[in-house]
Amino acid sequence: MNHVEDTLRRTLENAARQAPTALPGTLAGRLETRHQRRRHRAQALLAAAAVVLVAGGTAVGLRAGGGTTMPAARSSPTPSLSATASAVALEPVEKVWPQAAWTAPVRAPGGPELRPMAMIDDRTLLMSAGRTFGKVETLYAYDSATGDLRRITDVPAPKGTTLFATGFGLDGTRVAWWTMTKGVVHIWAAALDGGRARPVAGHPVDGDDAPDGLGLAGDDVVFSLANGGVYRVPLTGGPVMPVPDGAGLHLLSWPWAGTPGAGDPRRPAFTKLVNLATGQTSTAVVRDGERVYACGVRSCFGTAPDGKAFTRARDGSRQKEIPSGYLVPEPPVQSRFYVRNIRDDGPGIGLYDLVTGTLADTGIREEVATRGEIPVPDAAGRIMTYRLKNRYHVIDLSKIP
Amino acid sequence: MEADPRFAGFVAERGQALLRYGYVLAGNPHDAADLVQEALLKLRAAWPRLRAKDNPESYVRTTMARLHTATWRLRRRELLAWDLPEHGHHDVLPHGDEQAMWQALAGLPRRQRVVLVLRYYEGLSDAEIATTLGISRGTVRSQASRGLDKLRAAMPAHGPMSVGNEYEERR
Protein backbone atom coordinates (compact mmCIF):
# COMPACT_ATOMS: atom_id res chain seq x y z
CA MET A 1 0.00 0.00 0.00
CA ASN A 2 1.55 3.28 -0.92
CA HIS A 3 1.51 6.05 1.59
CA VAL A 4 -0.92 8.43 -0.09
CA GLU A 5 -3.42 5.69 -0.73
CA ASP A 6 -3.12 4.43 2.81
CA THR A 7 -3.60 7.90 4.29
CA LEU A 8 -6.49 8.55 1.93
CA ARG A 9 -8.26 5.36 2.94
CA ARG A 10 -7.73 6.04 6.63
CA THR A 11 -8.83 9.66 6.27
CA LEU A 12 -12.04 8.72 4.50
CA GLU A 13 -12.88 6.07 7.07
CA ASN A 14 -12.26 8.36 10.00
CA ALA A 15 -14.00 11.29 8.34
CA ALA A 16 -17.05 9.11 7.75
CA ARG A 17 -17.23 8.56 11.49
CA GLN A 18 -17.29 12.30 11.98
CA ALA A 19 -20.31 12.71 9.74
CA PRO A 20 -23.31 14.40 11.33
CA THR A 21 -25.12 11.80 13.35
CA ALA A 22 -28.44 13.50 13.88
CA LEU A 23 -30.62 12.11 11.14
CA PRO A 24 -34.05 13.54 11.88
CA GLY A 25 -36.66 10.96 12.75
CA THR A 26 -39.08 12.82 10.54
CA LEU A 27 -36.89 12.47 7.45
CA ALA A 28 -38.83 9.69 5.74
CA GLY A 29 -42.11 11.53 6.17
CA ARG A 30 -40.66 14.76 4.85
CA LEU A 31 -39.24 12.91 1.89
CA GLU A 32 -42.65 11.37 1.29
CA THR A 33 -44.24 14.82 1.22
CA ARG A 34 -41.62 16.13 -1.16
CA HIS A 35 -41.94 13.08 -3.33
CA GLN A 36 -45.69 13.68 -3.68
CA ARG A 37 -45.12 17.35 -4.38
CA ARG A 38 -42.63 16.58 -7.10
CA ARG A 39 -44.93 14.01 -8.56
CA HIS A 40 -47.72 16.58 -8.70
CA ARG A 41 -45.47 19.15 -10.25
CA ALA A 42 -44.14 16.75 -12.83
CA GLN A 43 -47.69 15.83 -13.70
CA ALA A 44 -48.68 19.45 -14.07
CA LEU A 45 -45.80 19.85 -16.50
CA LEU A 46 -46.93 16.84 -18.44
CA ALA A 47 -50.55 17.89 -18.40
CA ALA A 48 -50.99 17.02 -22.04
CA ALA A 49 -50.28 13.37 -21.47
CA ALA A 50 -51.77 11.17 -18.82
CA VAL A 51 -49.10 10.33 -16.35
CA VAL A 52 -49.60 6.95 -14.86
CA LEU A 53 -47.44 5.54 -12.15
CA VAL A 54 -47.35 1.90 -11.43
CA ALA A 55 -47.72 0.72 -7.91
CA GLY A 56 -48.35 -2.79 -6.80
CA GLY A 57 -49.55 -3.95 -10.17
CA THR A 58 -52.18 -1.26 -10.32
CA ALA A 59 -51.70 1.71 -12.57
CA VAL A 60 -52.41 4.86 -10.70
CA GLY A 61 -52.09 8.52 -11.32
CA LEU A 62 -53.55 11.85 -10.64
CA ARG A 63 -53.70 15.32 -11.89
CA ALA A 64 -52.32 18.25 -10.03
CA GLY A 65 -55.35 20.51 -10.01
CA GLY A 66 -53.44 23.67 -10.85
CA GLY A 67 -51.06 23.40 -7.97
CA THR A 68 -49.94 20.99 -5.39
CA THR A 69 -53.33 20.12 -4.00
CA MET A 70 -55.78 17.58 -5.18
CA PRO A 71 -59.13 18.41 -6.70
CA ALA A 72 -61.19 20.66 -4.48
CA ALA A 73 -64.39 19.65 -2.76
CA ARG A 74 -66.63 22.51 -3.76
CA SER A 75 -69.70 20.41 -4.33
CA SER A 76 -68.60 17.61 -2.12
CA PRO A 77 -71.47 15.56 -0.73
CA THR A 78 -69.39 14.65 2.29
CA PRO A 79 -69.12 16.53 5.54
CA SER A 80 -66.56 19.27 5.32
CA LEU A 81 -63.62 18.62 7.51
CA SER A 82 -61.87 21.86 6.92
CA ALA A 83 -61.50 24.60 9.51
CA THR A 84 -63.14 22.76 12.35
CA ALA A 85 -61.57 19.46 11.59
CA SER A 86 -59.27 19.60 14.54
CA ALA A 87 -62.25 19.67 16.85
CA VAL A 88 -63.85 16.58 15.32
CA ALA A 89 -63.12 13.48 17.30
CA LEU A 90 -63.15 10.57 14.89
CA GLU A 91 -63.78 7.02 15.90
CA PRO A 92 -60.92 4.60 15.29
CA VAL A 93 -61.17 1.99 12.57
CA GLU A 94 -61.57 -0.79 15.15
CA LYS A 95 -64.71 0.90 16.51
CA VAL A 96 -66.19 1.94 13.19
CA TRP A 97 -65.66 -1.44 11.52
CA PRO A 98 -65.02 -3.87 14.41
CA GLN A 99 -65.91 -6.88 12.26
CA ALA A 100 -63.25 -5.90 9.71
CA ALA A 101 -60.26 -4.77 11.77
CA TRP A 102 -57.64 -6.91 13.46
CA THR A 103 -53.88 -7.06 13.85
CA ALA A 104 -51.06 -9.39 12.81
CA PRO A 105 -47.44 -9.87 13.88
CA VAL A 106 -44.54 -8.10 12.16
CA ARG A 107 -41.86 -10.72 12.74
CA ALA A 108 -41.65 -14.45 12.24
CA PRO A 109 -39.99 -16.72 14.80
CA GLY A 110 -36.26 -16.14 14.60
CA GLY A 111 -36.63 -12.54 13.50
CA PRO A 112 -37.32 -12.25 9.74
CA GLU A 113 -39.71 -9.48 8.82
CA LEU A 114 -43.22 -10.57 7.89
CA ARG A 115 -45.27 -8.84 5.20
CA PRO A 116 -49.02 -9.17 4.67
CA MET A 117 -49.85 -10.52 1.23
CA ALA A 118 -53.44 -11.68 0.76
CA MET A 119 -56.38 -13.37 2.46
CA ILE A 120 -56.45 -17.14 2.14
CA ASP A 121 -59.94 -17.42 3.61
CA ASP A 122 -62.19 -15.36 5.86
CA ARG A 123 -59.80 -15.34 8.78
CA THR A 124 -56.38 -16.40 7.47
CA LEU A 125 -53.75 -14.02 6.14
CA LEU A 126 -50.96 -15.17 3.83
CA MET A 127 -47.72 -13.54 4.93
CA SER A 128 -44.22 -13.67 3.49
CA ALA A 129 -41.05 -13.60 5.53
CA GLY A 130 -37.52 -12.72 4.55
CA ARG A 131 -34.33 -11.33 6.00
CA THR A 132 -33.30 -9.15 3.08
CA PHE A 133 -35.14 -6.62 1.01
CA GLY A 134 -37.56 -8.10 -1.47
CA LYS A 135 -36.48 -11.68 -0.93
CA VAL A 136 -39.26 -13.98 0.18
CA GLU A 137 -37.79 -16.92 2.04
CA THR A 138 -40.79 -18.45 3.76
CA LEU A 139 -44.58 -18.30 3.51
CA TYR A 140 -46.74 -18.23 6.63
CA ALA A 141 -50.46 -18.38 7.35
CA TYR A 142 -51.66 -16.16 10.17
CA ASP A 143 -54.97 -17.12 11.77
CA SER A 144 -56.62 -13.89 12.94
CA ALA A 145 -59.03 -15.79 15.17
CA THR A 146 -56.48 -17.78 17.16
CA GLY A 147 -53.34 -15.69 16.65
CA ASP A 148 -51.55 -18.79 15.37
CA LEU A 149 -48.73 -18.26 12.85
CA ARG A 150 -48.22 -21.41 10.78
CA ARG A 151 -45.29 -22.01 8.45
CA ILE A 152 -46.55 -23.01 5.01
CA THR A 153 -43.39 -23.62 3.03
CA ASP A 154 -39.90 -22.42 2.26
CA VAL A 155 -39.56 -20.48 -0.98
CA PRO A 156 -36.60 -21.72 -3.02
CA ALA A 157 -34.15 -19.46 -4.83
CA PRO A 158 -31.93 -21.85 -6.78
CA LYS A 159 -28.51 -20.79 -7.99
CA GLY A 160 -28.76 -18.49 -10.99
CA THR A 161 -32.00 -16.88 -9.84
CA THR A 162 -32.09 -13.29 -11.11
CA LEU A 163 -35.52 -12.32 -9.81
CA PHE A 164 -36.68 -13.75 -6.51
CA ALA A 165 -40.15 -15.09 -5.85
CA THR A 166 -42.90 -12.61 -6.58
CA GLY A 167 -46.34 -12.38 -8.21
CA PHE A 168 -48.02 -14.67 -5.70
CA GLY A 169 -51.47 -15.86 -6.76
CA LEU A 170 -53.69 -18.13 -4.69
CA ASP A 171 -57.01 -19.85 -4.30
CA GLY A 172 -58.29 -21.39 -1.08
CA THR A 173 -55.90 -24.31 -1.12
CA ARG A 174 -52.90 -23.53 -3.32
CA VAL A 175 -50.45 -20.71 -3.96
CA ALA A 176 -48.29 -20.14 -7.05
CA TRP A 177 -45.55 -17.64 -7.89
CA TRP A 178 -42.72 -17.03 -10.31
CA THR A 179 -38.97 -16.55 -10.23
CA MET A 180 -36.54 -15.93 -13.05
CA THR A 181 -33.18 -17.14 -14.17
CA LYS A 182 -31.59 -15.60 -17.23
CA GLY A 183 -34.15 -15.70 -20.01
CA VAL A 184 -36.42 -18.24 -18.28
CA VAL A 185 -39.55 -17.75 -16.17
CA HIS A 186 -39.97 -20.43 -13.51
CA ILE A 187 -43.44 -21.11 -12.13
CA TRP A 188 -43.70 -22.60 -8.65
CA ALA A 189 -46.59 -23.85 -6.53
CA ALA A 190 -47.23 -25.09 -3.02
CA ALA A 191 -50.19 -26.35 -1.04
CA LEU A 192 -51.41 -23.79 1.49
CA ASP A 193 -51.77 -26.46 4.15
CA GLY A 194 -48.04 -27.15 3.95
CA GLY A 195 -45.40 -29.16 2.18
CA ARG A 196 -42.61 -28.50 -0.25
CA ALA A 197 -42.75 -25.88 -2.98
CA ARG A 198 -42.72 -27.60 -6.36
CA PRO A 199 -41.40 -26.30 -9.67
CA VAL A 200 -44.34 -26.33 -12.09
CA ALA A 201 -42.77 -25.26 -15.36
CA GLY A 202 -40.08 -23.20 -17.04
CA HIS A 203 -40.88 -20.85 -19.90
CA PRO A 204 -38.22 -19.12 -22.02
CA VAL A 205 -38.73 -15.41 -22.74
CA ASP A 206 -37.05 -12.83 -24.97
CA GLY A 207 -34.60 -10.27 -23.65
CA ASP A 208 -35.54 -8.94 -20.25
CA ASP A 209 -39.22 -9.83 -20.55
CA ALA A 210 -40.78 -11.09 -17.31
CA PRO A 211 -44.25 -11.87 -15.99
CA ASP A 212 -46.50 -8.94 -15.11
CA GLY A 213 -49.41 -10.91 -13.72
CA LEU A 214 -50.10 -14.36 -12.28
CA GLY A 215 -53.15 -16.12 -10.93
CA LEU A 216 -54.85 -19.47 -10.55
CA ALA A 217 -57.62 -20.64 -12.88
CA GLY A 218 -59.04 -23.94 -11.74
CA ASP A 219 -56.16 -26.40 -11.86
CA ASP A 220 -53.98 -24.16 -14.01
CA VAL A 221 -51.55 -21.36 -13.32
CA VAL A 222 -52.18 -18.42 -15.67
CA PHE A 223 -49.68 -15.66 -16.19
CA SER A 224 -48.91 -12.87 -18.62
CA LEU A 225 -45.67 -11.29 -19.78
CA ALA A 226 -44.72 -7.62 -19.72
CA ASN A 227 -44.33 -7.70 -23.52
CA GLY A 228 -47.88 -9.06 -23.80
CA GLY A 229 -49.42 -12.52 -24.00
CA VAL A 230 -51.32 -14.72 -21.56
CA TYR A 231 -50.21 -18.31 -20.91
CA ARG A 232 -51.41 -21.24 -18.87
CA VAL A 233 -49.86 -24.38 -17.46
CA PRO A 234 -51.37 -27.13 -15.29
CA LEU A 235 -50.43 -26.89 -11.60
CA THR A 236 -49.25 -30.48 -11.81
CA GLY A 237 -46.80 -29.51 -14.55
CA GLY A 238 -46.80 -29.84 -18.31
CA PRO A 239 -46.33 -27.64 -21.34
CA VAL A 240 -46.88 -23.88 -21.09
CA MET A 241 -49.54 -22.99 -23.66
CA PRO A 242 -50.71 -19.60 -24.92
CA VAL A 243 -54.29 -18.88 -23.88
CA PRO A 244 -56.53 -18.51 -26.98
CA ASP A 245 -57.31 -14.84 -27.63
CA GLY A 246 -54.74 -13.86 -25.01
CA ALA A 247 -52.05 -12.73 -27.45
CA GLY A 248 -50.71 -9.29 -26.59
CA LEU A 249 -52.82 -9.04 -23.44
CA HIS A 250 -51.91 -8.55 -19.80
CA LEU A 251 -53.54 -10.49 -17.00
CA LEU A 252 -55.58 -8.30 -14.67
CA SER A 253 -57.56 -10.86 -12.69
CA TRP A 254 -58.50 -14.16 -14.26
CA PRO A 255 -60.47 -14.46 -16.49
CA TRP A 256 -59.96 -10.79 -17.27
CA ALA A 257 -56.95 -9.67 -19.30
CA GLY A 258 -56.52 -6.51 -21.33
CA THR A 259 -54.52 -3.61 -22.67
CA PRO A 260 -52.65 -1.45 -22.03
CA GLY A 261 -50.79 -3.24 -19.27
CA ALA A 262 -50.05 -1.58 -15.96
CA GLY A 263 -46.46 -1.10 -17.07
CA ASP A 264 -47.31 1.38 -19.82
CA PRO A 265 -46.56 4.82 -18.39
CA ARG A 266 -48.39 6.80 -21.06
CA ARG A 267 -51.78 5.18 -21.44
CA PRO A 268 -54.46 4.35 -18.89
CA ALA A 269 -54.19 0.71 -17.91
CA PHE A 270 -56.82 -1.87 -18.80
CA THR A 271 -59.25 0.38 -20.66
CA LYS A 272 -59.80 -2.63 -22.92
CA LEU A 273 -60.58 -5.96 -21.28
CA VAL A 274 -61.34 -9.43 -22.57
CA ASN A 275 -62.91 -12.23 -20.55
CA LEU A 276 -60.67 -15.07 -21.69
CA ALA A 277 -63.19 -17.67 -20.53
CA THR A 278 -66.22 -16.33 -22.40
CA GLY A 279 -64.80 -13.95 -25.02
CA GLN A 280 -66.82 -11.05 -23.62
CA THR A 281 -65.10 -7.69 -24.10
CA SER A 282 -65.30 -4.37 -22.30
CA THR A 283 -64.04 -0.96 -23.38
CA ALA A 284 -64.04 1.71 -20.70
CA VAL A 285 -65.91 4.93 -21.43
CA VAL A 286 -63.68 7.98 -21.70
CA ARG A 287 -65.48 11.27 -22.31
CA ASP A 288 -64.09 14.35 -24.05
CA GLY A 289 -61.97 16.57 -21.86
CA GLU A 290 -61.51 14.15 -19.04
CA ARG A 291 -58.55 12.02 -18.20
CA VAL A 292 -58.81 8.45 -17.12
CA TYR A 293 -55.77 7.13 -15.32
CA ALA A 294 -56.48 3.51 -14.62
CA CYS A 295 -59.25 0.95 -14.84
CA GLY A 296 -59.98 -2.23 -12.96
CA VAL A 297 -62.40 -5.06 -13.67
CA ARG A 298 -65.39 -2.98 -12.61
CA SER A 299 -64.35 0.66 -12.44
CA CYS A 300 -62.13 3.45 -13.63
CA PHE A 301 -60.45 6.36 -11.91
CA GLY A 302 -59.78 9.75 -13.46
CA THR A 303 -60.30 13.48 -13.39
CA ALA A 304 -63.14 15.47 -14.95
CA PRO A 305 -62.51 18.57 -17.13
CA ASP A 306 -62.99 20.74 -14.02
CA GLY A 307 -60.15 18.91 -12.33
CA LYS A 308 -62.22 16.95 -9.83
CA ALA A 309 -61.22 13.37 -9.28
CA PHE A 310 -63.83 10.68 -9.82
CA THR A 311 -64.40 6.97 -9.75
CA ARG A 312 -67.09 5.25 -11.81
CA ALA A 313 -68.13 2.03 -13.48
CA ARG A 314 -66.37 1.08 -16.71
CA ASP A 315 -69.53 1.79 -18.69
CA GLY A 316 -69.54 5.38 -17.44
CA SER A 317 -72.37 4.96 -14.93
CA ARG A 318 -72.40 5.50 -11.17
CA GLN A 319 -69.83 8.27 -11.24
CA LYS A 320 -68.77 9.48 -7.80
CA GLU A 321 -66.68 12.47 -7.04
CA ILE A 322 -63.76 11.87 -4.71
CA PRO A 323 -63.96 14.70 -2.19
CA SER A 324 -61.30 16.79 -0.58
CA GLY A 325 -58.48 15.72 1.62
CA TYR A 326 -57.36 13.30 -1.03
CA LEU A 327 -54.06 12.37 0.42
CA VAL A 328 -52.57 9.46 -1.41
CA PRO A 329 -52.53 9.61 -5.17
CA GLU A 330 -53.85 6.17 -5.81
CA PRO A 331 -57.25 5.02 -7.00
CA PRO A 332 -59.69 4.25 -4.21
CA VAL A 333 -59.51 0.58 -3.32
CA GLN A 334 -62.54 -1.22 -4.75
CA SER A 335 -63.51 2.21 -6.14
CA ARG A 336 -64.65 2.92 -2.64
CA PHE A 337 -62.03 3.25 0.10
CA TYR A 338 -59.33 5.85 0.07
CA VAL A 339 -56.78 7.30 2.43
CA ARG A 340 -57.26 10.92 3.43
CA ASN A 341 -56.27 13.50 6.00
CA ILE A 342 -58.40 13.60 9.09
CA ARG A 343 -57.55 17.18 9.86
CA ASP A 344 -56.11 20.22 8.17
CA ASP A 345 -53.88 21.44 10.94
CA GLY A 346 -51.91 18.39 11.86
CA PRO A 347 -50.93 14.89 10.97
CA GLY A 348 -53.35 12.03 11.01
CA ILE A 349 -54.57 9.56 8.44
CA GLY A 350 -58.09 8.28 8.01
CA LEU A 351 -59.78 5.75 5.76
CA TYR A 352 -62.79 7.14 3.94
CA ASP A 353 -65.67 5.09 2.53
CA LEU A 354 -67.06 6.82 -0.56
CA VAL A 355 -70.26 4.76 -0.47
CA THR A 356 -71.40 5.57 3.06
CA GLY A 357 -69.43 8.77 3.66
CA THR A 358 -67.83 7.24 6.74
CA LEU A 359 -64.38 8.41 7.81
CA ALA A 360 -62.48 6.31 10.34
CA ASP A 361 -59.23 7.10 12.13
CA THR A 362 -56.42 4.64 11.39
CA GLY A 363 -54.46 5.76 14.42
CA ILE A 364 -51.53 6.79 12.22
CA ARG A 365 -50.18 9.93 13.82
CA GLU A 366 -47.07 11.94 13.80
CA GLU A 367 -44.65 9.32 15.04
CA VAL A 368 -45.67 6.83 12.45
CA ALA A 369 -47.27 8.90 9.74
CA THR A 370 -44.17 10.95 9.30
CA ARG A 371 -42.25 7.80 8.66
CA GLY A 372 -44.34 7.39 5.57
CA GLU A 373 -46.66 4.70 6.86
CA ILE A 374 -49.99 4.54 5.07
CA PRO A 375 -52.57 1.82 4.59
CA VAL A 376 -51.81 -0.11 1.40
CA PRO A 377 -54.05 -2.58 -0.39
CA ASP A 378 -53.13 -6.12 -1.38
CA ALA A 379 -53.03 -7.04 -5.07
CA ALA A 380 -56.68 -8.10 -5.05
CA GLY A 381 -57.87 -4.97 -3.23
CA ARG A 382 -59.53 -6.99 -0.50
CA ILE A 383 -57.49 -5.86 2.49
CA MET A 384 -55.59 -2.75 3.48
CA THR A 385 -52.70 -3.05 5.90
CA TYR A 386 -50.42 -0.70 7.75
CA ARG A 387 -47.92 -0.98 10.53
CA LEU A 388 -48.20 0.75 13.88
CA LYS A 389 -45.47 0.02 16.36
CA ASN A 390 -45.06 -3.74 16.46
CA ARG A 391 -48.26 -4.89 14.80
CA TYR A 392 -49.72 -4.84 11.34
CA HIS A 393 -53.23 -3.46 11.30
CA VAL A 394 -55.41 -5.27 8.81
CA ILE A 395 -58.72 -3.99 7.50
CA ASP A 396 -60.68 -6.66 5.64
CA LEU A 397 -62.71 -4.45 3.31
CA SER A 398 -64.90 -7.40 2.32
CA LYS A 399 -66.38 -7.28 5.83
CA ILE A 400 -67.61 -3.71 5.42
CA PRO A 401 -71.19 -3.82 4.10
CA MET B 1 -46.08 -7.83 -7.55
CA GLU B 2 -47.06 -6.21 -4.34
CA ALA B 3 -46.11 -2.66 -3.50
CA ASP B 4 -43.53 -2.28 -0.80
CA PRO B 5 -44.45 0.28 1.84
CA ARG B 6 -41.19 -0.12 3.71
CA PHE B 7 -39.43 2.93 2.34
CA ALA B 8 -39.51 4.56 5.77
CA GLY B 9 -37.92 1.50 7.29
CA PHE B 10 -35.13 1.65 4.76
CA VAL B 11 -34.51 5.32 5.50
CA ALA B 12 -34.46 4.66 9.22
CA GLU B 13 -32.15 1.69 8.88
CA ARG B 14 -29.71 2.91 6.28
CA GLY B 15 -29.95 6.71 6.53
CA GLN B 16 -27.00 7.06 8.83
CA ALA B 17 -24.68 4.97 6.70
CA LEU B 18 -25.75 6.93 3.64
CA LEU B 19 -25.03 10.15 5.46
CA ARG B 20 -21.51 8.94 6.20
CA TYR B 21 -21.03 8.11 2.56
CA GLY B 22 -22.42 11.51 1.56
CA TYR B 23 -20.00 13.14 3.93
CA VAL B 24 -16.91 11.58 2.40
CA LEU B 25 -18.27 12.27 -1.07
CA ALA B 26 -19.07 15.91 -0.48
CA GLY B 27 -16.74 16.85 2.32
CA ASN B 28 -19.19 18.81 4.43
CA PRO B 29 -22.31 17.89 6.39
CA HIS B 30 -24.70 20.22 4.56
CA ASP B 31 -23.97 18.93 1.10
CA ALA B 32 -23.91 15.41 2.51
CA ALA B 33 -27.43 15.90 3.86
CA ASP B 34 -28.60 17.30 0.54
CA LEU B 35 -27.05 14.48 -1.43
CA VAL B 36 -28.67 11.87 0.78
CA GLN B 37 -32.06 13.50 0.53
CA GLU B 38 -31.93 13.99 -3.19
CA ALA B 39 -30.89 10.40 -3.74
CA LEU B 40 -33.56 9.12 -1.34
CA LEU B 41 -36.19 11.14 -3.20
CA LYS B 42 -35.16 9.45 -6.39
CA LEU B 43 -35.30 6.11 -4.64
CA ARG B 44 -38.78 6.95 -3.35
CA ALA B 45 -39.94 7.71 -6.88
CA ALA B 46 -38.48 4.43 -8.10
CA TRP B 47 -39.64 2.41 -5.10
CA PRO B 48 -42.85 1.01 -6.60
CA ARG B 49 -40.87 -0.19 -9.59
CA LEU B 50 -38.03 -1.78 -7.64
CA ARG B 51 -37.89 -5.44 -8.42
CA ALA B 52 -36.98 -8.20 -6.05
CA LYS B 53 -33.42 -8.34 -7.29
CA ASP B 54 -32.87 -4.62 -6.96
CA ASN B 55 -30.82 -3.46 -4.04
CA PRO B 56 -32.13 -0.10 -2.81
CA GLU B 57 -28.91 0.77 -1.05
CA SER B 58 -26.79 0.27 -4.10
CA TYR B 59 -29.34 2.31 -6.07
CA VAL B 60 -29.01 5.20 -3.63
CA ARG B 61 -25.22 5.05 -3.48
CA THR B 62 -24.92 5.05 -7.25
CA THR B 63 -27.34 7.96 -7.43
CA MET B 64 -25.35 9.90 -4.85
CA ALA B 65 -22.07 9.40 -6.71
CA ARG B 66 -23.64 10.44 -9.98
CA LEU B 67 -25.39 13.43 -8.49
CA HIS B 68 -22.21 14.65 -6.98
CA THR B 69 -20.27 14.42 -10.23
CA ALA B 70 -23.01 15.96 -12.31
CA THR B 71 -23.42 19.68 -12.37
CA TRP B 72 -25.74 19.30 -9.49
CA ARG B 73 -26.68 22.48 -7.70
CA LEU B 74 -26.13 22.05 -4.02
CA ARG B 75 -28.37 23.43 -1.31
CA ARG B 76 -31.62 22.92 -3.14
CA ARG B 77 -34.07 25.11 -1.37
CA GLU B 78 -36.78 22.54 -1.13
CA LEU B 79 -34.66 20.08 0.73
CA LEU B 80 -34.97 19.61 4.42
CA ALA B 81 -32.34 21.24 6.54
CA TRP B 82 -31.81 20.00 10.02
CA ASP B 83 -29.57 21.00 12.84
CA LEU B 84 -26.03 20.31 11.85
CA PRO B 85 -23.00 21.07 13.97
CA GLU B 86 -21.32 24.21 12.76
CA HIS B 87 -17.72 23.32 13.47
CA GLY B 88 -15.52 21.81 10.82
CA HIS B 89 -15.54 18.09 11.22
CA HIS B 90 -12.00 17.70 10.07
CA ASP B 91 -11.00 19.50 13.28
CA VAL B 92 -11.53 16.30 15.16
CA LEU B 93 -9.75 13.97 12.80
CA PRO B 94 -7.14 12.34 14.98
CA HIS B 95 -3.94 12.52 13.01
CA GLY B 96 -2.23 15.50 11.46
CA ASP B 97 -1.78 13.76 8.14
CA GLU B 98 -5.50 12.99 8.00
CA GLN B 99 -6.35 16.61 8.52
CA ALA B 100 -4.00 17.58 5.72
CA MET B 101 -5.48 14.87 3.51
CA TRP B 102 -9.05 15.96 4.25
CA GLN B 103 -8.19 19.52 3.31
CA ALA B 104 -6.39 18.38 0.17
CA LEU B 105 -9.43 16.36 -0.81
CA ALA B 106 -11.52 19.52 -0.55
CA GLY B 107 -9.34 21.05 -3.24
CA LEU B 108 -9.97 18.29 -5.79
CA PRO B 109 -12.40 18.66 -8.68
CA ARG B 110 -15.56 16.77 -7.87
CA ARG B 111 -15.13 13.99 -10.33
CA GLN B 112 -11.64 13.18 -9.12
CA ARG B 113 -12.83 13.16 -5.56
CA VAL B 114 -15.77 10.91 -6.33
CA VAL B 115 -13.57 8.43 -8.19
CA LEU B 116 -11.19 8.30 -5.23
CA VAL B 117 -14.03 7.87 -2.73
CA LEU B 118 -15.50 5.04 -4.75
CA ARG B 119 -12.11 3.37 -4.99
CA TYR B 120 -10.83 3.87 -1.45
CA TYR B 121 -13.95 4.22 0.68
CA GLU B 122 -16.42 2.04 -1.20
CA GLY B 123 -13.71 -0.37 -2.31
CA LEU B 124 -14.99 -0.58 -5.88
CA SER B 125 -12.88 -1.82 -8.77
CA ASP B 126 -12.20 0.55 -11.65
CA ALA B 127 -14.68 -1.39 -13.77
CA GLU B 128 -17.37 -0.95 -11.11
CA ILE B 129 -16.57 2.74 -10.79
CA ALA B 130 -16.88 3.12 -14.55
CA THR B 131 -20.35 1.51 -14.42
CA THR B 132 -21.43 3.52 -11.40
CA LEU B 133 -20.52 6.86 -12.93
CA GLY B 134 -21.29 5.96 -16.52
CA ILE B 135 -17.77 6.82 -17.72
CA SER B 136 -15.04 4.77 -19.40
CA ARG B 137 -12.49 2.78 -17.49
CA GLY B 138 -9.77 4.90 -19.01
CA THR B 139 -11.40 8.02 -17.58
CA VAL B 140 -11.63 6.36 -14.18
CA ARG B 141 -7.93 5.59 -14.28
CA SER B 142 -6.89 9.04 -15.44
CA GLN B 143 -9.13 10.82 -12.91
CA ALA B 144 -7.85 8.65 -10.08
CA SER B 145 -4.28 9.16 -11.16
CA ARG B 146 -4.63 12.93 -11.37
CA GLY B 147 -6.42 13.07 -8.05
CA LEU B 148 -3.76 11.00 -6.32
CA ASP B 149 -1.04 13.17 -7.82
CA LYS B 150 -2.66 16.28 -6.41
CA LEU B 151 -3.09 14.71 -3.00
CA ARG B 152 0.50 13.55 -3.03
CA ALA B 153 1.68 17.05 -3.88
CA ALA B 154 -0.45 18.60 -1.17
CA MET B 155 0.57 16.25 1.56
CA PRO B 156 3.46 17.12 3.82
CA ALA B 157 6.30 14.83 2.93
CA HIS B 158 7.00 12.38 5.66
CA GLY B 159 8.24 8.90 5.23
CA PRO B 160 9.23 7.50 1.91
CA MET B 161 6.69 9.05 -0.44
CA SER B 162 6.31 7.14 -3.61
CA VAL B 163 6.86 8.96 -6.83
CA GLY B 164 5.24 8.43 -10.15
CA ASN B 165 2.15 6.39 -10.54
CA GLU B 166 2.76 3.29 -8.61
CA TYR B 167 -0.92 2.50 -8.24
CA GLU B 168 -1.45 2.30 -11.95
CA GLU B 169 1.48 -0.03 -12.39
CA ARG B 170 0.21 -2.44 -9.82
CA ARG B 171 -3.27 -2.57 -11.22
From TrEMBL, chain A:
<keyword id="KW-0812">Transmembrane</keyword>
<feature type="transmembrane region" description="Helical">
    <location>
        <begin position="44"/>
        <end position="62"/>
    </location>
</feature>
<protein>
    <submittedName>
        <fullName>Uncharacterized protein</fullName>
    </submittedName>
</protein>
<keyword id="KW-0472">Membrane</keyword>
<dbReference type="InterPro" id="IPR011042">
    <property type="entry name" value="6-blade_b-propeller_TolB-like"/>
</dbReference>
<keyword id="KW-1133">Transmembrane helix</keyword>
UniProtKB/TrEMBL annotation, chain B:
<protein>
    <submittedName>
        <fullName>DNA-directed RNA polymerase sigma-70 factor</fullName>
    </submittedName>
</protein>
<comment type="similarity">
    <text>Belongs to the sigma-70 factor family. ECF subfamily.</text>
</comment>
<feature type="domain" description="RNA polymerase sigma-70 region 2">
    <location>
        <begin position="13"/>
        <end position="77"/>
    </location>
</feature>
<dbReference type="InterPro" id="IPR013249">
    <property type="entry name" value="RNA_pol_sigma70_r4_t2"/>
</dbReference>
<dbReference type="InterPro" id="IPR014325">
    <property type="entry name" value="RNA_pol_sigma-E_actinobac"/>
</dbReference>
<dbReference type="GO" id="GO:0016987">
    <property type="term" value="F:sigma factor activity"/>
</dbReference>
<dbReference type="GO" id="GO:0000428">
    <property type="term" value="C:DNA-directed RNA polymerase complex"/>
</dbReference>
<dbReference type="Pfam" id="PF08281">
    <property type="entry name" value="Sigma70_r4_2"/>
</dbReference>
<dbReference type="Pfam" id="PF04542">
    <property type="entry name" value="Sigma70_r2"/>
</dbReference>
<feature type="domain" description="RNA polymerase sigma factor 70 region 4 type 2">
    <location>
        <begin position="99"/>
        <end position="151"/>
    </location>
</feature>
<dbReference type="InterPro" id="IPR036388">
    <property type="entry name" value="WH-like_DNA-bd_sf"/>
</dbReference>
<keyword id="KW-0804">Transcription</keyword>
<dbReference type="InterPro" id="IPR014284">
    <property type="entry name" value="RNA_pol_sigma-70_dom"/>
</dbReference>
<dbReference type="InterPro" id="IPR007627">
    <property type="entry name" value="RNA_pol_sigma70_r2"/>
</dbReference>
<keyword id="KW-0805">Transcription regulation</keyword>
<dbReference type="GO" id="GO:0006352">
    <property type="term" value="P:DNA-templated transcription initiation"/>
</dbReference>
<dbReference type="InterPro" id="IPR013324">
    <property type="entry name" value="RNA_pol_sigma_r3/r4-like"/>
</dbReference>
<dbReference type="GO" id="GO:0003677">
    <property type="term" value="F:DNA binding"/>
</dbReference>
<dbReference type="InterPro" id="IPR039425">
    <property type="entry name" value="RNA_pol_sigma-70-like"/>
</dbReference>
<keyword id="KW-0238">DNA-binding</keyword>
<dbReference type="InterPro" id="IPR013325">
    <property type="entry name" value="RNA_pol_sigma_r2"/>
</dbReference>
<keyword id="KW-0731">Sigma factor</keyword>
